Amino acid sequence: MTPGVGPVEAGPTPHFSKGGAVIPRMAAGVLAVSVAFAVAPASADPVRDGQFWIGQLGLERAWQLSKGTGVTIGLVDTGVNADLPDLTDAVLPGREFPELGAGPRDEQGHGTEMALLIAGRGHNDSDGTLGVAPEAKILPAKLNGGGTDVNSAIRWVVDHGATVVNLSLGSGTAHTADYDDGLRYAQEHDVVVVAAAGNSRTDRGVTSPADRPGVLAVSAVDRTGAFRPEVSVQGPEVALAAPGVDLTTANSPRASRGTSEAAALVSGVAALVRARFPKLTAANVVARLTGTAARPGGRGRDEQYGFGVVDPVGALTADVPPVDRNPLGTLVERSPTTVEATGRPVWPWVAGGLVALAAALGTIVFLRRQSAK
Prior knowledge:
single chain; Rossmann fold; 2 domains; two-stranded antiparallel sheet; 13 strands; 15% strand; globular; disordered C terminus; membrane; transmembrane; Peptidase_S8_subtilisin-like
């Protein structure tokens, strides 16, 4: 048994790939889909040089409209090192699943990198990492186990205020319902779920949970916006694309590539949208992200880009028709209920009111009968 790792489920040993080293970490069926390569820095300032996605995605303009204030992103990953200068005041108290007594600190670096890409504060102009949503909060759920723990982690971050969940992990297989309990719970609570589609080095197609209904599966493109088949998988479940090739952060100055990074950037954009439009349902946030994406070569959806490369400015400014259901489908069975603008079901309140009314009428009838005796 690997030190610091609890009992694991049966099956092949999964791993996070980081800096070229394969590190055993989580139980069978759960693999982070990010691979780091030792790429030489392009300049004396590799971190800032690697943040080409800021210009590529037009984030300077997007930040004039939203910086993610008030939004919490649940990060189910390897934990987060909250003491980094770029994460000052960005990370909420987290938890590990299952609890092994180590807390949510990140020994692998993967989760910390995702946190920086999503909500890095950019502590100075020279070498700080500025995330997509630099005023959002990260709620880390450190994953030590397998599918059951992923479900528990998703439920926990949802219960503790996350309205966006980032899953830069995958099972290595497709169309498995192993994570449906957590995904369904998130959908029932009006949460946007973003997941890495999978890496071509280890996966043959879009893996679960990215391929599940309602989940924003993200593929990776390079700094020119071109899909990179040697990096990212493709498949009909891909919903969006985002930069995921040769990215650097203050936590990992060596350039990394993978759909983990791409998913983190999309989670940050989802936070920008939720902050600017706090009354939008998760379904309408997804509709904004997919409906405004920049589709290379024309309109429509394909297996490499999905609906296109995520466009933060478009998602924050475009006139997007409202929808009443997630355009990517859902694991939640549709019922004859109404959903308010906040995404919370109305029927429980209506039902409660009817019950209270019936009780009141019964009391009145009873009292009248008593007084008539």
